[in-house]
Amino acid sequence: MDEPRRVLPMVGGPRPERADAAQNRRRILAAAGRVIAARGVDGLSLDDVAREAGVGVGTVYRRFGGRARLLYALIDEREREFQRAFMHGPAPLGPGDGGAPPAARVRAFLHALVDRTEEQSELLLAAESDTPFARFRDHYYDLYRLHLGTLIERVSPAADADYLADALLAPLAANLFRHQRHARGMDVPRIKAGLDDLLDGVIRPA
């Protein structure tokens, strides 16, 4: 099997909720999405979200604990879809139908992560910038690194798979990705092609 050797739960997995709590959660997330659509991520405040949702700001704080966790909650649904795809979905991204060779799965993962980052890069940037090491303390990153490292070991057993997993994930940090996309004018195909070149240089079949 081409899956990680230890099992990590899917990040952002659903928790049992009372019906009223689930309704409040959906209302707050929908309101946050509207605030961001109107003002951008920088314009997101919990006070504005509470007003838009028609709930008290204390409800928002109790439900999410702060702005960063609200941002991650907005990210979670798309993240769960992405995780299902690479952990359980069809080849070459996932292991289904017998899977693809490990090197093809690494390439497919990086390309899919580019698309996933493109979709929510502004939200990811805000969440990853909350503290200096926020990106690395989040379970998303741990799962990505474990998944890549496991595949790299199968392509090149002598390589330092743990280091190379970090190296391949580094270009997908939201701040660099947005700088390339919006300051340097790189399009998504160019970023994917660059990752292909990087991948060809760092992992080679034994």
From TrEMBL:
<dbReference type="InterPro" id="IPR036271">
    <property type="entry name" value="Tet_transcr_reg_TetR-rel_C_sf"/>
</dbReference>
<dbReference type="Pfam" id="PF00440">
    <property type="entry name" value="TetR_N"/>
</dbReference>
<feature type="domain" description="HTH tetR-type">
    <location>
        <begin position="22"/>
        <end position="82"/>
    </location>
</feature>
<feature type="DNA-binding region" description="H-T-H motif">
    <location>
        <begin position="45"/>
        <end position="64"/>
    </location>
</feature>
<keyword id="KW-0238">DNA-binding</keyword>
<protein>
    <submittedName>
        <fullName>TetR/AcrR family transcriptional regulator</fullName>
    </submittedName>
</protein>
<dbReference type="InterPro" id="IPR050109">
    <property type="entry name" value="HTH-type_TetR-like_transc_reg"/>
</dbReference>
<feature type="region of interest" description="Disordered">
    <location>
        <begin position="1"/>
        <end position="21"/>
    </location>
</feature>
<dbReference type="InterPro" id="IPR009057">
    <property type="entry name" value="Homeodomain-like_sf"/>
</dbReference>
<dbReference type="InterPro" id="IPR001647">
    <property type="entry name" value="HTH_TetR"/>
</dbReference>
